[in-house]
């Protein structure tokens, strides 16, 4: 058995139907996907649509002297060539970062202008310089090649650790030393105190490698302008179409919201990279009006490597102080975060409030201080990628725990156990208040499933074959269910992070659920319908979930940060509460009973203590025909909306265990076993939850062993295609053992915490703890690919010993 | 412009194409069969896998004109009416897909694996056979399960085999 | 890709005439290397001569002394061919390591040799097995066929028709893949032939596949992995990139050679 059932949830609601909460319901959306009838942005064909292609910078840093596009604009099939000056003439504003961070000295972050097409200079390889609109993609490409750009090359810096140095070229005039902010969280004096009292200190230096998200569907945008109403429609590959509309309207100024419709149809994976508002969408919209034709841009994969925001890219020094008994006294972290050449939509929040606030991990740590410098470099902008800040925090603290255990000569599992938070709520020194959890339960279950006890025998068996074997743990915590609006507002967020829902009951009793969440693989069409089926006692086939269209759903904040369950579904619960309350009134009139005597169970409204009843469908019909009540007493209809603002973050946590075997001759690391035990609170659909964990783990293993965006010193992206950027393949991964423990979340009506990012957050530390265990040295950077491991072995002289 | 004719999902088709048209572009843009996807430009992701004359190929790495006279099967031709093919059903039953983008290529590859390797497929074989198909959502775990289950289900579904067994 | 004129050749003579007639014409066999290059606009042939409809380039024949494979044999066919599996099982195994199953359904032996990608697998087999490349004009020993990165001695209007691989007594191929592209970082083909041992390396050379005389001499004395202990290939002149430094490649050549010899010995 490679997996064991995760269907251990129980919510106190009915849970008895085969399609209710807790059931592994097969997905409603799958029929269209397995038959090739999905409808992705690139599948949409608008009459007369033409192609958009971008001329991108080949230099990492250069001043633009002149752009000559006259010849290109007269080439066959070309409708227009657009430059940054054209966009400025259209009065389109720059792209913005929506989260204000203040430096320690109180000054606001140094956000440089970020026009969709650059005007004065290029600051990274791949930056859009000009756009060509032509009849066919090849014609657009031909014309782009004919545009002549005179560059005056400037020196570039790509390494975040070097960006603040005296020799580094200045990338934006507004940001001296290329420093966007110098920010801190926690109590430096308390930490200094703790370190002064410490019996021992563990110090580590870590690089959290830069990753490229690589959703398999490349991004795309199809923009259409209606001259009659001067309004726009944008189909795009977005995780949050409403936020895209808000930014494109309020900040970029394409059109006011009521004249801009954004539709995100089926979206082929996001992992963060499709949250952001990108230059290509702005240009597509502007171009659609200029050429009066629908304009389509579909990203090539190699283009995506420089067009999509990257993730991670931290350089960190961290120290952990222990007392004589192995209890943590304090934690000190200094991180330089690379934000790339421009600030992407949410970039500033990732290395700050999504990172430093999680540095307490699962542990009771009395004093924590974290300082973060965010820097500009001549690289692709960096923003949220699956986990966003929390994988970086987990990597810091879980590497520290493992290294400390080895240094102190104690079992890494026991050092963790000794320091676990035991009582809840628990206030950490870094803002977060953990509401519930049972970290020992996850640890114990994971150790048992991973046969932690039997590792010694397996290691001896490997060594007998000339192989090195290691085991590593990662007891992670994350903050999901993002987020209480008031709280994030006080921390600099430009928006509230509630979610909306509307439940529309039709006269025949079928239901449409409109949600501000967006599904791009998460299975909302199924899980959200499960919730409604469970609550209203109606067949799941009579429920449809509507999302991703600003003309249908009034507003929403979208899907990221594992928020759709805890926040999006809670909004649906709130709307369902209102539907039930209204339906109860209708039923009271139908059944000629007092509203107080109406009970709703198993899909029927009953008069308590009698056999008088009406099904949900009958009540729905009566709500619309309105024959049984007067308009003075009750409004007809059955449609309710709700906004849900969470009261706290949720705190999924768990323990992942990785076991590796290394071929010392080649340096190749093989994952032999991977065990994940997660506490996601209550679970709506265990099948889907397991799938989310699997995918996250694969990305986490990818970060640890394979993936890295590599720039050379001149700022060229060396890993600019699948020929050089290593994507995890089936053969690189083992079967995964996935299980759960449950502490229901007290903060939302369903008791759920979120599961989308756990694997990506937990896995890198588990893998690297196993790799360093096998190699017998802590000095192993990610990704631990064969070349890296071979070099480590060379340095350690282990190769000779193994031969 | 050259004219190309072929049979796609049992239907004869004929169209004038720019010679540079890739088979995948022909299927998607000319025939509007958009179930076949494009996920990369280096022939690696496998989202575009279709069958040409019975074998799996990457339709992004073949010119439309090279498919002259060929029998092409795309994901749209796999189900029998509203009844899913056993391999499609296996993906649904085993949660072998999330965003669905790589899925058509995965299923077309899976059918090709069964053709070559039979109905009893172990974990290792399936993983090695998926060398040319990338998925970013599932971690492959449930895709491997789906293909093993689908292959077994196809054994029961295959009339020729049933006859042979009788 | 850039525009070009397409020709579907129905016979060899027509194909070579078309190649002779048009400057910058290129033959296309499986197209699994050429088409990606054209898509990236890194290759821009004026004319493309498609060999897929040409008769007589497909057979696989096993004689008592050699395995003769048609130039248009797909990797997938070579991989499962009973003749290849009987005659040179190492070659069947190598064909099954190229690209992925879908690529193997299109890619061809002749195309791979003519392209001479320094990280391709077949060049190592051709060198180690002492193959003879038969063309429309002549017979070329493998040792004289390859002429540097993506270069061979083929003339613009010369096509490979078949390749003759003399049967070795023992042979094996070991490949260490580039984790991204899955091409060879180092691939070593060892062949114990009636009169000599050959060791050929692909993936590592800065100018293509090459033989390792020092390894061959040592294995000639005794065909055993231990014979290679203490021997190494100098790192100078080897390829170096983010996936493998020249030193690492030099080291892997030794590892893969030892493993290949062990595999050949069964």
Automatic annotation (TrEMBL), chain A:
InterPro entries reported for this sequence: Ald_Oxase/Xan_DH_a/b, Ald_Oxase/Xan_DH_a/b_sf, Ald_Oxase/xanthine_DH-like, AldOxase/xan_DH_MoCoBD1, AldOxase/xan_DH_MoCoBD2, AldOxase/xan_DH_Mopterin-bd_sf
Annotated TM spans: none
UniProt keyword Oxidoreductase present: yes
Alphabetical list of SUPFAM superfamilies matching this protein: CO dehydrogenase molybdoprotein N-domain-like, Molybdenum cofactor-binding domain
Top-level taxonomic group: Bacteria
Region (Disordered): 1-22
Alphabetized UniProt keyword annotations: Molybdenum, Oxidoreductase
Domain Aldehyde oxidase/xanthine dehydrogenase a/b hammerhead: 35-155
Pfam families, per database record: Ald_Xan_dh_C (PF01315), MoCoBD_1 (PF02738), MoCoBD_2 (PF20256)
Gene3D superfamilies given in the database record: Aldehyde oxidase/xanthine dehydrogenase, a/b hammerhead, Aldehyde oxidase/xanthine dehydrogenase, molybdopterin binding domain
Name of the protein: Xanthine dehydrogenase family protein molybdopterin-binding subunit
UniProtKB/TrEMBL annotation, chain B:
Residue stretches making up the 2Fe-2S ferredoxin-type domain: 2-78
Membrane-crossing segments per the record: none
Any Pfam family matching the protein: Fer2_2
Domain of life where this protein originates: Bacteria
Signal peptide: none
Keywords, comma-separated and alphabetical: 2Fe-2S, Iron, Iron-sulfur, Metal-binding, Oxidoreductase
InterPro entries: 2Fe-2S-bd, 2Fe-2S-bd_dom_sf, 2Fe-2S_ferredoxin-like_sf, 2Fe-2S_ferredoxin-type, Beta-grasp_dom_sf, Diverse_Oxidoreductases
CDD domains (alphabetical): fer2
PANTHER family listed in its UniProt record: OXIDOREDUCTASE WITH IRON-SULFUR SUBUNIT (PTHR44379)
Protein name (record): (2Fe-2S)-binding protein
Automatic annotation (TrEMBL), chain C:
Name the UniProt record assigns to this protein: Xanthine dehydrogenase family protein subunit M
Keywords: FAD, Flavoprotein, Oxidoreductase
InterPro entries associated with the record: CO_DH_flav_C, CO_DH_flav_C_dom_sf, Diverse_Substr_Oxidored, FAD-bd_PCMH, FAD-bd_PCMH-like_sf, FAD-bd_PCMH_sub1, FAD-bd_PCMH_sub2, Mopterin_DH_FAD-bd
The organism of origin for this protein: Rhodoplanes tepidamans (Rhodoplanes cryptolactis)
Domain FAD-binding PCMH-type: 1-170
UniProt cross-references to PROSITE patterns, sorted A to Z: FAD_PCMH
Entry's transmembrane regions: none
Keyword Magnesium: no
